Amino acid sequence: MIRKVTTNSLISCFIFVCAAGCNDKQSPIIYNHTNALIVLSNAENPFYDIRDGGSIQLSYKTKEEYPATSVIKQLSAQLEANGWKPLKEDYLNPGLPSSHVNGWSDFEDHSCPPIEIVHQWMGDWEDKYGNIVRCVFRYEYPKNKDKNLSILQIHEIYSPASLIKLRKERLKDLKEIDK
Hints:
The chain is of the alpha+beta class. The chain has one domain (2-178).
């Protein structure tokens, strides 16, 4: 019941945000995102978060052993069936291969104690309108502790084409300033 209320509230809020920004030329145009944010059948506590600029993030956990090959294949197949095409490079960092090309990466996260070991797969998909959905699959556990490679965190971030264009323009401007 709570999930249904949350979903209905999210949809109502999304419609309001879209309607409120229709006349504002600075607001991004938000296309239908429902075919981009996929909740897998074994998802635990899916949570939607509407971000500034029109991005929507879906986050949840699921029990899946590393390297989550079946989950990645399932989500990829569903996105591609919905018209999304995988990108070989990070859309914000041209030249940087995505996990579609390089697979999993491992790193230490020092952003807050305790230091965490992170195994991450991150890839982007683009639809015919230029909207982007980024999927991030992560396993995390504290450094010098037992590895926990059975709880997979999934984050899917939908960004409308107008926001993607704005981000790319700002990055281009920043690169020009750095020259």
